[in-house]
């Protein structure tokens, strides 16, 4: 049986876990801060919804292209080196973002950001899944993602303040410093070749993916990820842009809205990860979390009517004050609901993919399928929702995103019950 929430704190006594958590911290902080920066770029360049959707599509398209060869490379190569390359590339991305002058520059840098993020995400989550004790995998993965959620919260708050007070250059300089610290942590503390190397003949490839997709459980997870990513990535991309361009909110307030979801996610994900280990029925956690996320997404456009129900509210801290407009409250609440939903869904979803990968000795391959399914929806979702928004209304855009998530959850629940994932990997030697 896994430990309780105190066990999550115990993991920070493990130097390797801390090094891996450092990569999640650097990656998530950068992602959140740049999400706010994209809202500023959208406002500055007066972009349309379709162009704003390209900010998300460019990020995801490169990830879709590289995810399969990257998964195979991680299976057969030294994962530590891939983490170090990913961290170094992210520093170069920050330098590039500090120099953008046009919308096309933003789109190009999103491509490079997507490449670096994939290196860190797939490699980091694969290594955590492989070196964690079998009985504590949900807790390791949950706590690893909890660090990422906390870092996203820091990116929302600190990044929003830095962008508002100091501009792009200093903000990207801070992100570079954090990423370099993570680089040192991985280089010094993470074992060489973590997880070992699979024989190239047995590693992630077309045949491995076919074997994985031959299981109804994997097909259920892949279909679920497709629909979820379509809706969720539209929310993540357009929520900060909506707050900035429709209601004129400052980077600090945009960061505060995003902090609602990150706070609930960071506080609860590690605990929920332990529950998935103890209670089982991980597919139920996935279904409930997805439906709850759809509810949060559907709440967002009701910010249009916030002025009828909320009054502006002034907050004063340390002699500084800011006024929260009426729209702040429903947007904050909606994303807080989304954060709770992710805490319920994410540890269980990741654990199911790891279990399926172990069944064929191809954990990175399974995680690659997970990422491919996500990227397909992420490529199509933002630009489709952006174009729909241009053609119709904000309600049609967010309701469509919510509907995709609900349909995906229902289909997943039905398919998964046909052939559940194995309870444990086949026994092997020491």
Summarize this structure briefly:
Helix content is 78%, strand content 2%.
List segments where confidence is low: pLDDT < 50 over at least 5 consecutive residues. Answer: 1-5, 424-430
> What is the helix fraction of residues, given as a range?
over 70%
Q: Based on Cα principal axes, name the global outline.
A: globular
CATH homologous superfamily label? MFS general substrate transporter like domains
Measured distance between first and last alpha carbons? 21 Å
Cα-atom radius of gyration: 20 Å
The first-level CATH class is given as: Mainly Alpha
Q: Judging by the overall fold, what is the CATH architecture? A: Up-down Bundle
- Beta strands, count: 2
Mean pLDDT: 84
Structural class: mainly alpha
Share of β-strand residues: under 5%
**Helix-strand pattern, N to C?**
HHHHHHHHHHEEHHH
Strand order across the largest sheet = 1-2
User: Count of helices?
Assistant: 13
CATH fold-level name: Growth Hormone, Chain: A
Q: What is the total domain count?
A: 1
Largest sheet, in brief, is: 2 strands, antiparallel
Task: Report on this structure.
With 430 residues, this protein is mainly α. It has one domain: Growth Hormone, Chain: A, CATH 1.20.1250.20. Helix content is 78%, strand content 2%. It contains 13 helices and two strands; from the N terminus they run H-H-H-H-H-H-H-H-H-H-E-E-H-H-H. A two-stranded antiparallel ribbon has the order 1-2. Strand 1 and strand 2 form a beta hairpin. The protein is globular and about 55 Å long. The protein starts with a helix and ends in a 14-residue tail after the last helix. The N terminus and C terminus are likely disordered.
